[in-house]
Amino acid sequence: MKKSLQSLDKLIGTLEEQVKELNCLFKVEEVLHEPDAELEETLERLVHILPEGFQHSEDCQAQLVYRDMEFHTEEFKETDWCLSEDIVVRGNTIGWVKVCYLKKHPNVDIGPFLEDEQELLRSIANRVGQHLMYVRLKMIFKKWEHTKIDLAQKRTGEWQVILELLRRTDPDLYIRITRKMLNHLMWRGINEAEQLLQRFDPYAQYQEEDVLGESNAPLEKVVFGDIHLLSQEIFQVAQQHLDDKEILTLIQKWMQEDKTSFLVRATANIDTSLNDIYEALRKYYQINPVGMELAPSTRIGVRAALIRRIFSDQLEFISVAKHFVRVSDFYHLMKRMIFPTGSHGKLGGKSAGSFLAFRIIRACEHYTDLLRNVKTPRSWYVTSDAMILFMHYNNLEEILEQKYKPIEEVRKEYPHVVQLFKNSHFPPEIIKGLSVALDDLGEQPLIVRSSSLLEDRLGSAFSGKYKSLFLANQGSKSDRLQALMDAIAEVYASTIGPDPIEYRAERGLLDFHEEMGIIIQQVVGQRVGPYFFPAFAGVAFSNNEFRWSPRIKREDGLIRMVPGLGTRAVDRVSDDYPILIAPGQPGLRTNVNPDEIIRYSPKKMDVINLETGEFQTVDVRDVVQKYGREYPMIEKIVSVVEGDHLRPPGFTTDFSQVDFAVTFEG
User: Fold this and answer.
1) CB-based burial label for 341 (10 Å; 0-12, 13-18, 19+)
2) If I label 350, which of 245, 361, 382, 637 is the partner at 20 to 30 A Cα–Cα?
């Protein structure tokens, strides 16, 4: 019985506290809804209501601060028992509300305060913030109405309404637009503008040779005039030489450009993290989903800055890429990037190359007809500094010094290093990003590709030096995630493998701080029986160094093609051959007579076994004989051998009953 009474008392006490809090909120709403009250009066009344919502109201004092105004109850002072919440408007903290007990009370949830009391204070802070925003908008609206009335009476144009509103509400932007108008008038060759410029900038009267000459004496410092005083004259000159429509267009354009200045600042600042860059891009497209048009010089500058921050600081790469990539490309790219908090990492050379290559193809004049089917697989990217975070998280930093050891020692220790990486753990924030990537990529087989900072840079290809690993990506989400992390760890370990270290040493790159970015891509292909593979794959070279005919020129290029996954085209194998084609002379094949064609045709192919989850090398003959009609584009890949000649397969060809060879003659 006693226990029941205690529970009842506790329930009653809780209900009483809730009633106090609700009464407090009700009074706050009453005060905020009084239409004619002055702001200072409203805030003063609010601060005296606050203590009523707290458990020990008789001992509670309150403070409300808004910008440079402070309101508080009579006995308010800072003590050890205070609770505070910021007043936030449009992401900016403009003040706070605070309550303090003057003496100690028993601890409950948050010191002497209940969790519900913190929620109460937060709710009040939010409502005050909303009210202050409303008051601000109301004031601006009134100014706007007064401006329209005043200017309408003066029969002024629409651009003058906007300009006057700016002068009253955003004087900094008003001054920037005034400067731009002065520069525009100067560019138009208007004499009055030149005279105004000399009043604003006395240095403008100096001759070009005075500024650009070879004198070693410092230039004299001059003090700019007050453009506030000249602004009216500047726009009077503009009105004399430009029509109202042109002035309005210019002002609107400059206002729009000013709205995007945050993007310029974010991308140009080398200390800005990738998180901040993404937020700036998101905000840029949130303001206008289509993307506001940047000034040409600004557009190029933002592109170059984004290329430098995300891909490469190689000037040769930037000078090409900035003409083909769009700002919107980076916005969509960063949605599929995984990077640590505060990241300054890059995506690496392979990512940069494939990203730019597709943009160049897209810009090609033949894109719509000849190249419209060229696509890149759906991809996610892990920044290079995620590897450094991974190593730091597992105390593996000393392994970076492997590169300075004798190469035989590196080779001997490498298997242990690989296992050390594979048995390490990923930081939670990277795991979260990889989990999101898996949800997006689905259960299609994946390839985890290396994309180090040095890889595929101009002058250092690193072809085949770093790992790229195929994953079946089948099974439960946790199994697939574990397999993905295991593969990434192995690719990370390949950074300090013997082959890339030897390659770097030969090219004087050992002292370069190498980091490994990661590309996670869907594998292109389809299921055939238990296997997953593309019909064919290959690797292409701009220059042909293996010219089998005098009619083939070096610039005709070279393609190495194989059935199945392209690994056997990239990695030279001793027991098999790819099909070689010169794109500039596709009719000139390396082998002409049937015996040579059959002898040097590919006999094996790489596939992903979806049932075992393994990457496998299998006989082409076995796959085609067993699954011939399931094999995509089979009639374009193989030729039927009949005696001493080859012929294309027919629609009714039974591949289990005929001899054939991979020729790509279809």
Assistant:
1) exposed
2) 637
d(CA 256, CA 299): 14
- Beta-carbon neighbour count of residue 528 at 10 Å? 21
User: CA 518 → CA 90, 112, 449, distances in Å?
Assistant: 37, 50, 6
Q: Does domain 16-137 have CATH number 3.30.450.40?
A: yes
Residue 82, exposed/middle/buried by CB under 10 A (0-12, 13-18, 19+)? middle
Looking at this protein, which amino acid is placed at residue 76? F
At 550 the three-state DSSP class reads coil
State the maximum Cα–Cα separation within the chain, in Å, rounded to a whole number: 109
Instruction: Name the CA dihedral angle for 581, 584, 586, 590, rounded to a multiple of 10 degrees.
Output: -50
Q: Where are the domains of the chain?
A: 16-137, 336-518, 528-662
Instruction: Tell me the pLDDT tens digit for each residue of 323-367.
Output: 999 988 999 999 999 999 999 999 998 999 899 988 888 887 665
Residue 286 has pLDDT above 80, yes or no: no
Task: Judge whether residue 194 has pLDDT over 60.
Answer: yes
pLDDT of 259 higher than 80:
no
Other beta carbons within 10 Å of 254? 19
- Let me know: does 626 contact 656? Beta carbons within 8 Å: yes
Q: Please name which of 479, 569, 492 lies closest in space to residue 533, comparing C-alpha atoms.
A: 569
- Is 384 exposed, middle or buried (CB count within 10 Å of its CB: 0-12, 13-18, 19+)? buried
Q: Is 23 helix (H, G, I), strand (E, B) or coil?
A: helix
Closest to 98 (Cα-Cα) out of 112, 110, 87, 109: 87
> What is the rounded distance in angstroms from the CA atom of residue 347 to the CA atom of residue 338?
10
604 pairs with which residues across the strands? 619
Q: Which of 61-70, 179-188, 413-422 shows the lowest mean pLDDT across its residues?
A: 179-188
The H-or-E segment that residue 43 falls in is helix 39-49
Helix, strand, coil percentages (3-state) for the chain, rounded to 5, are 50, 15, 35
For residue 414, count other CB atoms closer than 10 A to its CB: 18
Nearest to 380 by CA among 347, 406, 343, 353: 347
Kind plus residue range of the DSSP H or E element containing 607? strand 604-609
C-alpha 361/C-alpha 548 separation (Å) is 29
Per-position DSSP letters for 134-183, written without gaps between them = HHHHHHHHHHHHHHHHHHHHTT--HHHHHHHHHHHH-HHHHHHHHHHHHH
Question: What tens digit of pLDDT does each residue of 479-493 get?
Answer: 999 999 999 999 999
| Tens digits of residue pLDDT in 607-616 | 999 999 999 9
User: 528-662 adopts what CATH topology?
Assistant: D-amino Acid Aminotransferase; Chain A, domain 1 (3.30.470)
Answer yes or no: is pLDDT of 164 > 70: yes
Amino acid at 632: P
pLDDT tens readout for residues 222-258: 444 455 667 788 888 888 888 888 888 888 888 777 7
CB 352 within 8 A of CB 311: yes
Q: At what angle are helices 2-32 and 39-49 packed, to 10 degrees?
A: 170
CA atoms lying within 13 Å on the CB side of residue 488: 30
Sort 298 into a burial class: Cβ within 10 Å, 0-12 / 13-18 / 19+: middle
Q: How many residues does the chain have?
A: 666
